[in-house]
Amino acid sequence: DHKARIDRGTLIVSPHTTLHNQEIEINLNDKSSLPPGLTCESVNADDIKFTRDANTMYLDSSALEGDPKFVIRHWREGDRMSPFGMKGSRLVSDIFSDAKMSLYDKQLTWLLTRNDVILWVMGMRASRHFPVTSTTRKAIRLTIDSTFKQQ
């Protein structure tokens, strides 16, 4: 029920899990569809105080237009995202490597997607899709806490 591996010269023993294949479809308008530890609320853009807290992400409310499918899932080989503040895209695996994450931690990290486009490497990095700008009136604040990270 455990696995052992050497990562960057350190022996890591961790529970054997298949959670990295799990997907959770959520509805940002229905709080009951959200997993424990994830909160979502609508806020006036004027009331937002931006911080460097990677556990909070803001989206322009236009992200809800149409009939979007929001899914929380784990990283897959080849996943790319367009990080906020950067041109182009990056491999999610490169973001993990920059953070010196172990394979086990990579497999446990959740991604928020909208119609298969990665919006957030949860707890790490937000994408530039649906940013809050000077023309934004309503925004969506997503926050994760420690109970979410332990799932």
Main features:
151 residues; mainly beta; 3 helices
Blueprint (SSEs and pairs):
Elements: E1 2-7, E2 10-15, E3 23-26, E4 38-44, E5 56-60, E6 70-74, E7 80-81, E8 90-91, H1 92-98, H2 103-108, E9 110-114, E10 117-121, E11 125-126, E12 138-144, H3 146-149
Antiparallel strand pairs: 1-2, 3-6, 4-12, 5-12, 6-9, 7-8, 9-10, 10-11
Q: Describe it for me?
A:
The chain is mainly beta. It has one domain (18-149). Helices cover 11% and strands 37% of the residues. It is built from 3 helices and 12 strands. The strands form 4 sheets. Strands 3-6-9-10-11 form a 5-stranded antiparallel β-sheet. It is globular and about 50 Å long. It starts with a strand and ends with a helix. The relative contact order is 0.27.
What is the compact description of this entry?
The protein is mainly β.
Order of helices and strands: EEEEEEEEHHEEEEH
The count of domains is: 1
Broad structural category: mainly beta
Q: Uncertain regions: pLDDT < 50 for 5+ in a row? A: none
Number of strands: 12
Strand content: 35-45%
**Count of individual helical segments:** 3
Provide the spatial order of strands within the biggest beta sheet.
Answer: 3-6-9-10-11
Largest sheet: 5 strands, antiparallel
Apparent shape: globular
What number is the mean pLDDT? 88
Helix content range: 10-25%
Q: Report how far the terminal alpha carbons are from each other.
A: 17 Å
Question: Rg to the nearest angstrom?
Answer: 16 Å
